[in-house]
Amino acid sequence: MSKVYARRRFGILAALTGLVASAGLFNSPTASAALPTPVSGATARTYLGSLTVAAEDRTGYKRDLFPTWITIDGACNTREWILKRDGSNVVTNSSCAATSGSWYSPYDGATWTAASDLDIDHLVPLAEAWDSGASKWTTAQRQAFANDVTRPQLLAVTDNVNQEKSDQDPATWMPPRKDYQCTYVRAWVQVKYYYKLSVDSAEKAALQKDLAGC
């Protein structure tokens, strides 16, 4: 293929992509999107009331059963896309890795200027999802869950706080920043409701208590 033909072909493809996007037929997420706002407290309480209560079973769980991170937009994988979305004045290189910026961690209120200080938290942990019904999903469904940038399931937070949380649910762990706890439980219930995941009895009791003040 000649260079001239390649350039012409690329130009045609770019134009077609632009036409499809402008027509609303291609809805790829963009890094300018804001962190999704979880449902209201009233809606979360309604959702919680409809969730199945069941004991958890982690038999067979392996993290690699939830493929992460996948390409989300251009050269950006899920982690890089979330870092761009959640940060301020984020500068990236040609591989989409963040080289500078500022990130506020809602879990603890800390601000960081190095992307290496941030983890991308699965608000409903992968192991928790497995316990709650994802063990019955296909790999494609688990991949979609692990890379969901549409619902309030992924966010950039202080790495050691995320590691402290690990795979705990709200019965045993809540964000240390109290002003964020209501947002956290509303998002938790929304994600579980959307994915038809169950809750255990202790988890449901904790969520009911926390949502009562939301």
Question: What would you say about this model in short?
Answer:
The protein is an alpha+beta fold and 214 residues long.
Throw out a few tags for this protein.
single chain; 214 residues; alpha+beta; three-stranded antiparallel sheet; two-stranded antiparallel ribbon; 8 helices; disordered N terminus
Question: Can you walk through the features of this model?
Answer:
Helices cover 40% and strands 14% of the residues. It has eight helices and seven strands; from the N terminus they run ααββαββββααβααα. It has helices at residues 3-22, 41-50, 78-86, 126-131, 139-146, 159-165, 181-194, 201-211, and strands spanning 71-73, 76-77, 87-92, 98-104, 111-112, 118-122, 154-158. The chain has a three-stranded antiparallel sheet with strand order 3-4-5, with helices on one face. A two-stranded antiparallel ribbon has the order 1-2. Helix 2 crosses helix 7 and helix 2 runs antiparallel to helix 8 (201-211). The protein starts with a helix and ends with a helix.
Summed up, the helix count is 8
Strand order of the largest sheet: 3-4-5
What proportion of the residues is helical, as a percent range?
Answer: 25-40%
Unreliable runs, pLDDT <50, ≥5 residues? 1-32
Describe the protein's topology.
Elements: H1 3-22, H2 41-50, E1 71-73, E2 76-77, H3 78-86, E3 87-92, E4 98-104, E5 111-112, E6 118-122, H4 126-131, H5 139-146, E7 154-158, H6 159-165, H7 181-194, H8 201-211
Antiparallel strand pairs: 1-2, 3-4, 4-5, 6-7
Helix pairs in contact: 2-7, 2-8
